[in-house]
Amino acid sequence: MIRLPVSHAERKVRGGKLLRVSVDRQADLIRSVKITGDFFIHPEEDLEKLEEAARGLPLNRPDKLEEAFHRVVRENGTQILGFSIEDLTELMREAR
Amino acid sequence: MSWRFLPFSVQNAAMNMAMDESISLHIHAQRSDPTIRLYGWKPSAVSIGCFQSLVDEVEVDQCQLQGVEVVRRRTGGGAVYHDQWGEITYSVIAPESLVTEDINQEYLVICGKIIEALGVLGIQAEFHPINDVLVRGRKISGSAQTRRSKVFLQHGTIIYDLNTEKMFSLLKVPSIKLSDKSIIQAKERVTCVRDHSGATKDDLIIALKSSFTKDLEFYEGSLTESEMEIARELAVKKYSNPSWTSSR
Fold first, then answer.
1. Nearest residue on chain B to A22, judged by CA atoms?
2. Does the beta-carbon distance from B51 to A10 stay under 8 Å?
3. Is B221 buried (19+), middle (13-18) or exposed (0-12) by CB count in 10 A?
4. Residue B116: CB atoms within 10 Å
5. Relative to the CA of A73, which of B9, B60, B64, B73 has its CA 20 to 30 Å away?
6. How far apart, in whole angstroms, are the C-alpha atoms of residue B57 and residue A10?
């Protein structure tokens, strides 16, 4: 199987919005992730905080990813309309 | 508290988005009244949500070929085709204290005004969370909201007339495997006023003005000199700037 340096995955969340991730990885570590789609995040700046939180984390530890994302939401009072943290984490695993 | 109503006017994509932001800034500075705008887009344009990837959502080459402008909004949500003749956009811009605290609830409230206006035209529409208005299961209106610096902005589109061939030549159909079936499905998910009513575009504008200003103390106005100046600057420096448009 050819492993590409940037992996993509997308999902139309049931009852939600389209969520896309592009994961730039080095071996099993996340170098960076780009999260795009037609969802809403309030405040909008928190999307970058979510992306930043994933940096350097292992792709094979979804629990750590989820924890990092939840921390962003908790610390910033982020409201996400259109996907859940679980959707995001699952999608990043699919992008492997 | 008196609201300012800006009657239907037509601008290009960058200016439309710049006007929304300029008004928001002036409301934040307490220099402008809460505002309701109705507007059109000339030339036709595609607007994308602030979290969308430009190349994933828009056939940029086709837009260029067809003279359709592309702009990135400061609100989230999806890619929208604003046809010069077939579409009306609204904006509601106000201090956050004047609207419901609950984001979802406010979508319901404002979409309710669109539904009421469509009802006047004999169209039975319904709210579809998070942010859509449907007629018989097909989307006729979508909206997007932001609340920055305690200023609420919600803007959205109401499709008066629809050319699905044109729309789907400009917007990418989100599908892992592109097929004829998925394009057909996409076309069947949208509708327009003309499909359901003999009302004119002016009838729609009048009905929207009426439902949006109902129960409000309001006056008809225009952008102030300061708002126009800031809007012109934003149109050039931000909304026409490829680094903003291609930022994702």
1. B53
2. no
3. middle
4. 16
5. B73
6. 13
Helix pair B201-213, B103-120: axis angle to 10 deg: 130
| Residue that has been written with the tokens 């420096």 in this structure | B237
* Predicted TM-score of the model (pTM): 0.95
Residues of B in contact with A16 (CB under 8 A): 130
**Is A17 in Cβ contact with B130 (below 8 Å)?**
yes
CA closest to B148 among chain A residues: A43
Q: Which of residues 34-53 of B touch A (CB under 8 A)?
A: 49-53
Q: Does B172 touch chain A (CB under 8 A)?
A: no
Residue numbers of A between 5 and 44 with CB closer than 8 Å to B? 10, 12, 16-18, 20, 34-44
Distances in Å between the Cα of B98 and the Cα atoms of B3, B93, B151 are: 11, 10, 9
Residue type, A5: P
The per-residue pLDDT string of chain B (248 residues; one tens digit each, 9 = 90 and over) reads 899 999 999 999 999 999 999 999 999 999 999 999 999 999 999 999 999 999 999 999 999 999 999 999 999 999 999 999 999 999 999 999 999 999 999 999 999 999 999 999 999 999 999 999 999 999 999 999 999 999 999 999 999 999 999 999 999 987 644 445 566 677 889 999 999 999 999 999 999 999 999 999 999 999 999 999 999 999 999 999 999 999 99
Nearest to B103 among A38, A39, A42 (CB): A42
Q: A91 — contact with chain B (CB < 8 Å)?
A: no
Q: Of residues A15 and A36, which shows the higher confidence score? A: A36
Closest CA to B176 of A95, A65, A88, A81: A95
What pLDDT does residue A27 have?
A: 84
